[in-house]
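Appendix C. Worked example: N-carbamoyl-L-amino-acid hydrolase
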Amino acid sequence: MADLADIADVGRDARRGGYSRHGFDRVELELRAWFTEEATRRGLDVHPDRNGNLWAWWGGPGPDAVVTGSHLDSVPGGGAFDGPLGVVSALQAVDVLRAKGFRPSRPLAVVVFVEEEGGRFGVACLGSRLMTGAIPPEAACALTDPDGVSFGEAAHRAGFDPLRMGRDDAALASVGRFVELHVEQGRGLTVPVGLASSILAHGRWRFTFTGEGNHAGATLIEDRRDPMLPASRLVLAARRAATGGARATVGRLVPNPGGTNVIASSVDVWLDARAADDHRTREVVALITEEARAAAAEEGCEVRVTEESYGDTVHFDRGLAAELSSVLGDVPALPTGAGHDAGILAAHVPTAMLFVRNPTGISHAPEEFAEADDCAAGVAALATTLEHLAR
Ligand code: HGY
Ligand code: MN
Ligand code: MN
Ligand code: MN
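Step 2, the predicted output written as structure tokens:
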């Protein structure tokens, strides 16, 4: 049976702990091969789409298909469940339905979206954003990883034609409903399985502070234009601005050139900001940006701000959520601060998310965990959902 244990050794990150599995890298290609083999073994027809997403079809493709799935990539040093739990649970739900002799009256598919975390190319949900036209293919293909390899080049090496990437109306038209199962990220659930009601508005901004590179020992303090100072003040400004349920995080700060005995010439800082609605998110980012600009000016540095990705609040389809809640025995629906491919598709097709309880709430870290019984309850809920929607 397809299981997280099958891939437990794929993409382990010895240095960071946890897993580092990124779009089109060697590890993710190994995971895609594993998925293709597992899906084929179940008699599903596996077809990649033009944007690098993998679709395993039970009948179809399309129209009006019931689609489930998630992603196999991770954040750097991420946990084992975020993404793969949704893919493994989908395969196990297919096993449950086939074992009881269920025959879907409409096509059913399991999809694996590429680069959901943006851990390599910096923009989250890249595969689902490409498919829905939420990002122009030229912009997506021009994104580069820390080694300077572009998404277009990485896709080409994986056998995809960057020139064919972009909004895929045929793929979108084939989807009647989309349901993603995911490990809960946070600790809102007191029962094994819940539904998502909404996703916070959220985005990523890149701040590049530029000063003057110089010698750490030979340069007097008064002669410096050290970009690390405004970068550091941005980190603290993010914490101060994130009030009233808003969240602002700097998880990545890269000084250039990054020598211990070198005053950086520039520093790149990535801000992840989220809040209940667009207005509040923009307000938080504006506060932080104002402080960053003032800090840069005081230190004689320049600052350039780039919005790298942004998505407004997602409200999942109420009718579908209510329908599934009743089919599943009144499971609770709760908001989430985490983004998902389901959040991208929700603007195009009726979409729902099933959450599996996370006892610690920790995610995007090696400690991410869900109890086996709760995972089994998630598979049962997904099988019931798919049978209900595809019967
Ligand atoms: O960033 C997120 O919330 C998602 O895990 N990509
Ligand atoms: Mn994630
Ligand atoms: Mn995820
Ligand atoms: Mn020297």
